[in-house]
């Protein structure tokens, strides 16, 4: 049998067809079937979830509030004390006096929290060598001042008595809302109402009916989180500072997609 005869077989009536012709037909049908399935899926998705049949709107809610809580970050730094235990003794004595002065000013001990407490050796470079020169000790506390609405001068008063008692570091004062969750919820509801009003205006103009909400996303533009308002380093004899809290604003945006009926 010749090479050509090995590659072909008789199909009847003297006609010849290529060996593997059936496989080619099978592969072609398989590809067509896959293409058909993909096309049906795409068409089904466009028919059922057609994004063109939606109205997207953005609503914004704003709530202005006056902070009612302040947090004062203050501390004491002791440097170059010859012995470690003496450095800690001096630090502890100063902190005890500061806490007493602050509580005498009307702050509860529950609102005074230690944030940092350290003891570290200090070295000087003498004759091309590092030599121990003493120890430094540091403690920082956060003092929470509540009900600022009825105690507007309390921040200045606490800072004044604390520095007089020995505080030589104030790293910041932050303000926050007494009930941040309630403010966020109020702003959120205003944003949703704003979005609904905009969608209704669009639907009225286009003479269409709004359907269900099919998508909603929230974006917080500004939040009633603690905000730095006052920073300084202090020595003895500092004047009482003026630390106004001012007004803050909570802003929330919502993106809403309405289905068109």
TrEMBL record:
One of its GO terms (biological process) is DNA damage response. The chain crosses the membrane at residues 24-43. The keyword ATP-binding does not apply. Keywords: Membrane, Transmembrane, Transmembrane helix. The keyword tRNA-binding does not apply. This is SIMPL domain-containing protein. It comes from Candidatus Komeilibacteria bacterium CG_4_10_14_0_2_um_filter_37_10.
